[in-house]
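Marked as duplicate of an earlier ticket. Keeping the data here for the record.
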Amino acid sequence: MRLFIQTFSLVLLINQSALADEASSWLKTEIDFILNAYNNSSTTNETRFLIIENTINYNFAGAGIAKFVAGKAWAGAEKNTKKDYITSFKRHLALNVASLMKGYSNQEYKLINIKYDSKNKVSLIDMEIYNETGSLVVTWRVKKSKERYFVIDLLVADISLVVTKRSEFNSMLKTVDYDLHEFNKLLKDQNESSYNKFIKSN
């Protein structure tokens, strides 16, 4: 019986390691794709953002994250309002990631401490980004669903992007009494302003 348990545990560890490695390989491919766009000096900011936005829309669990971030405002909103909000949230998320990537596009990185959380079925992938003064660790939370991977959160210096956004959005939602329809107007205006700044930046 002990031998069976030991064998089963070993098989389980091997499977978890394989899942984590598979997730990290997928993540590296996606990151390199974005970084290559930044490192190409002939690529315009508009094109760079489009690449990031398409990547975010396809690889992030945008709808699920958007719903969590909206909090109690989500329940009382109409279907079309929710749809518009998810679209705006995905662009907002892409603009945030674009801003992050712009600051670290010329640095080297390495994927380290790759772990698999079997309880939540999530791969935790630490990415260390190196620069002239030191390094920064970013942790990607990656989950497999329907035979493909999705990013469900991003931790920068142990601070969750999703939790931070929920707190930030909650403050904005208070100003419109948690009316998601009215909040969409604020978010679209904010996105437009952020987009224009990104496109015009050097």
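See parent ticket for discussion. Confidence is low (pLDDT under 50) at residues 1-19.
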